Amino acid sequence: MAAPRADPPAAYRGRFAPSPSGPLHDGSLIAAMASYLDARAHGGQWLLRIEDIDTPRVVRGADDVIMRQLQALGMRWDEPPVWQSRRLALYEAAFEQLRARAAVYGCACTRRMLSGGPYAGTCRNGLPPGRAARAWRFRVPDGIERFTDRWQGPQSQDVAREVGDFILRRADGLWAYQFVVVVDDGLQAITDVVRGADLLDSTARQRVLARRLGFEPPRTLHVPLILDEQGRKLSKQNHAPALDLARPVRTLLRAWRRLGFDTLDVDSADAFWERAVPLWGERYARLAITRPPGQLARGD
Ligand SMILES: [Zn+2]
């Protein structure tokens, strides 16, 4: 007889990870909606992570506003939300793991010395004499990273050549988005990331980093971005209007149609989700979940 074991993790764990730099708008709702629909259509769990690590951009109270918006639209998370700003010890530990394996190195380059293209590897084999590390970079292994995005199709990127050794810890001491998102997805055993297509280009590097940390990279589905009249991404920075919560059904249906579905005749948020989840499932949840779920991390 085998010893009793804890329940295995759910076969599907998704998340929505807004940065609290302002309220959700029509653009961010698309990503939230798609990730919620995908989790529910798979009978999975949906987590909320507040990405408040980029402290200069964080707006006090925006996290509460976002949570109230999601609730007003009938979206419920399955575990207590996490705040990245309270997880600094976890990032430090993951970073030390990489450092112990010489997978990171200090970089003394100033912004003026960097071309803006892929990092040239100036500090890869040691700092120039008399210079101190300002930032820390991930030593990207050679090779082409290939994966299939569930919306965007087959992707490939030569991360070492097209991106170069990217920054994990910035010169201002803050952790880079690319690092913490990988650590969090790994530690939270996220199986599926559903988010906006502006992050498609970051996915290959995140996969490479995830494996170096001992995590199985999550599957991804990148939904198209909503553009404004000028062809810019709808965002807080270019003053997208906040969501209309006085008319939640209308707000939900607008996002739903932008995801490419026909409108629905519903009179409440709950009724919307009841109808929308199976329709999403017909279109996007037919993939078989074949790989073992959960985290492959060593240690904890
Ligand atoms: Zn450098």
Characterization of the model:
- The structure is a single chain.
- The protein has 300 residues and is of the alpha/beta class.
- The protein has a single domain (13-284), classed as HUPs (Rossmann fold).
- The protein has helices spanning 26-41, 62-72, 88-100, 159-162, 177-187, 200-212, 248-258, 269-284, and strands at residues 13-16, 45-50, 82-83, 104-107, 135-138, 144-149, 153-158, 167-169, 192-196, 219-223.
- The chain has a three-stranded parallel beta sheet, with helices on one face. Strands 4-5-8 form a three-stranded antiparallel beta sheet. Strands 6-7 form a two-stranded antiparallel sheet.
- Helix 1 packs across helix 7 (248-258) and helix 5 crosses helix 6.
- The longest helix is centred in the first third of the chain and has 16 residues, at 26-41.
- The chain is elongated, with a radius of gyration of 20 Å.
- The structure holds zinc ion.
- Zinc ion binds next to loops.
- The site of zinc ion has 5 residues, from loops.
